[in-house]
Amino acid sequence: MKRIISFSLAVLALLLTGACERMGTIYEIPEGSACVSFPSKAAKIDMLPSDGNKFTVELWRGNTKGAASVAVDIDNQTNGAFTPSKQAFEFADGEAVAKLDFTYPDLNNFGGEAYKIVLNISDAKQVSPSGISKMTITAQRKLTRVFLGTGLFYSAFFDEQWEQDLYTTIESPDYYILPDCWVKGKDWTFTVSGGKPKWPATFDTGYLFVDGDNNSYGDVWIKTGGTVIEDGAMYLIVDSYYLPEFHNYDFGNAYEAFLPPEGVKIW
């Protein structure tokens, strides 16, 4: 069964009845506007064998009179791994929901990497005043984790060391997960090929930087500069710890280190 990004009919009903209302104000539907909205700003797709190499995105509209074609800009950050069926959502007369499919090759071609696709309604006039005009989709193969043990992690950013669990997956045994690495709820992941660890060029640590006055500056990101293996430990060279949401403020460079669990050889 293919995967469909959708909400409940009850939520859809709220959209249709309130598509042109905001802050207690009633808006007249502009002529030619479909008054559309995505179901949410972000969606996570777990790719499963039962999906038939396809998932479907929905777009809703409040103005269901007549047929409508609503063009969408697709920022396909997947190196061609996912192919949209078309470049517009097509509504039949009276239809409140339109669908757009994304197909992808054999699921076995995928490892543990995550792919991002950003959809943005091309014509802002088509969007409901209370609607969502942009949706970010993250698609990743559904993976079955396998616990390998507990190692040690050292962060030069905090100058702290702690015990760190390590997982791999059945579907992609060269994909490794450091769950809740810097903060709870944010996993760090890397792959190993030919005994060499490979990290994303940049990634979100999940750590929200807040100053002494409780002002938030967004998450700290890492720009990676390669890895070094020494005495069984992996040293992730950090070219920059930075804040993308605050003028790319740079904390400087250093390293993060991980020593795998005793008896576990991954490089």
Question: Could you explain how this protein is built, in words?
Answer:
The structure is a single chain. Helix content is 4%, strand content 53%. The longest helix is centred in the N-terminal third of the chain and has 10 residues. The strands form 5 sheets. It has a 6-stranded antiparallel beta sheet with strand order 14-13-21-20-19-18, with no helix packed on it. Strands 1, 4, 6, 8 and 10 form a 5-stranded mixed beta sheet that branches. The protein has a 5-stranded mixed beta sheet with strand order 5-12-11-7-9, with no helix packed on it. The N terminus is likely disordered. By secondary structure, the chain is mainly beta.
What labels would you give this structure?
4% helix, mainly beta, disordered N terminus, 267 residues, five-stranded mixed sheet
